[in-house]
Write a structure and sequence with these properties.
It contains ten helices and nine strands. It is an alpha+beta fold. The protein has one domain: Class II aldolase/adducin N-terminal domain (L-fuculose-1-phosphate Aldolase). Strand 8 and strand 9 form a beta hairpin. Helix 4 packs parallel to helix 8. The relative contact order is 0.14. Bound molecules: 1,3-dihydroxyacetonephosphate and zinc ion.
Length: 267
C-alpha cells in the first residue's frame, strides 16, 4: 500500500488520463487540484513526509484554506504522464496554519513546483469551499478557445451561445459562464479576476487560453468541461456552416427551467 493506492489519488489519475485523451492537454497544458476530506487526509498522512519544511510562501494567500491539503499537478508536468509517473507529476501540499504558505508532503519526486496556476486554483477553492466544491480544473479545449476569437468577451454572449448550442447546457450550468479577458497567466491578478467570476458560477473562460471549472467531485468538474467543450464544438460547426437558421427560443428556455427546477441566469 502506498499513496497512489488511495482512492482519491486513483480518481485524480483517472481523470488526468481521460482528460489527456480528450485532447485538452497538449504538452504541459492544463492543471488539476483536489481538496482532501478529513478522512482522506488521515489516510494520506501515513505516507507523507511529516518533516517537510520550511513552508513555501503562497503568492495569493487564502486564510480560509489554512490547514487544508490539496493534491495538485506539478508545473511543466504533462497530463499524459500522470498515470505513468504519478509521484513525479503530482504534489500533495498542506497549507500552513496561517494560510500564507504550503508544505510539500509528497510527490514531485524528481523536483519542481506545483502548477504555475496554483494562485488561481487556491483562490477558486477559497470561494468554492463553502459550496462543497473540492475540484478545480483547468484545460485547453480547442473549440472553447476558438470561440474566444469570435464571440464578444462577455458572460452574456458566451452563456447565450453555449446554452443555444445544446439543450442540456442551461440545465447543467444555469448560472452561465464567466469570462476573463486576456491576461498574463500564472499569477495573482488573473487568480483574483477568475475567483471574482467563480463567486457566481462554476465555469470561467480565459480568453485565447482555456477554461476553469469547479466541481464537488472529479465527475462533476470533468462533466462540466466536457459539456462546455461539446457545446462549443457544435457552436463552431454552426458558425462554420454560415450561422444558425433556427435556435432554442426564450420560451424553450423558460419551459426547460420550469421542467428541471433550475433558475437561469438573467442575460
Ligand atoms: P503548468 O504546467 O504550470 O500547470 O501550466 C500549464 C498551464 O496551462 C498554464 O496556464
Ligand atoms: Zn493554461
Amino acid at each position: 500500500m502506498s499513496m497512489i493506492d488511495l482512492p482519491f489519488v486513483d480518481a485524480f489519475i483517472r481523470m488526468a488520463d481521460d482528460a489527456f485523451y480528450k485532447g485538452w492537454h497538449e504538452r504541459n497544458g492544463g492543471n488539476l487540484s483536489y481538496r482532501l476530506t478529513d478522512d482522506e487526509r488521515a489516510a494520506a498522512e501515513v505516507f507523507w513526509n511529516a518533516e517537510a519544511g520550511p513552508a513555501v510562501p503562497l503568492e495569493a494567500p487564502a486564510s480560509v484554506l489554512a490547514g487544508d491539503v490539496f493534491l495538485v499537478t506539478g508545473s511543466g508536468k504533462y497530463m499524459r504522464n500522470v498515470i505513468l509517473a504519478p509521484e513525479e507529476s503530482l504534489a500533495l501540499v498542506e497549507i500552513t496554519a496561517d494560510g500564507a504558505g504550503y508544505y510539500l508532503r509528497w510527490g514531485l519526486s524528481a523536483g519542481g513546483r506545483p502548477t504555475s496556476e496554483l494562485p488561481t486554483h487556491l483562490l477558486n477553492h477559497a470561494v468554492k469551499k463553502a459550496a462543497g466544491k473540492r475540484v478545480i480544473y483547468h484545460a485547453h479545449p480547442g473549440n472553447v478557445i476558438a470561440l474566444t476569437y469570435i464571440l464578444p468577451l462577455t458572460h452574456k454572449a458566451f452563456t447565450r451561445a453555449l446554452w443555444e448550442s445544446a439543450t442540456e447546457c442551461p440545465v447543467v450550468f444555469p448560472e452561465g459562464i464567466g469570462v476573463v479577458p486576456w491576461m498574463v497567466p500564472g499569477g495573482k491578478d488573473i487568480a483574483a479576476a477568475t475567483s471574482a467570476e467563480m463567486k457566481h458560477r462554476n465555469i470561467v473562460v480565459w480568453a485565447h487560453h482555456g477554461l476553469f471549472c469547479a466541481g464537488a467531485d472529479f465527475d462533476e468538474a470533468f462533466g462540466l468541461m466536457d459539456t462546455v467543450e461539446k457545446a462549443a464544438e457544435i457552436c463552431v460547426k454552426v458558425l462554420s456552416m454560415g450561422g444558425a437558421r433556427q435556435t432554442i427560443t426564450e420560451q424553450n428556455f423558460s419551459d426547460l427551467a420550469k421542467s428541471f427546477g433550475v433558475t437561469l441566469a438573467e442575460l
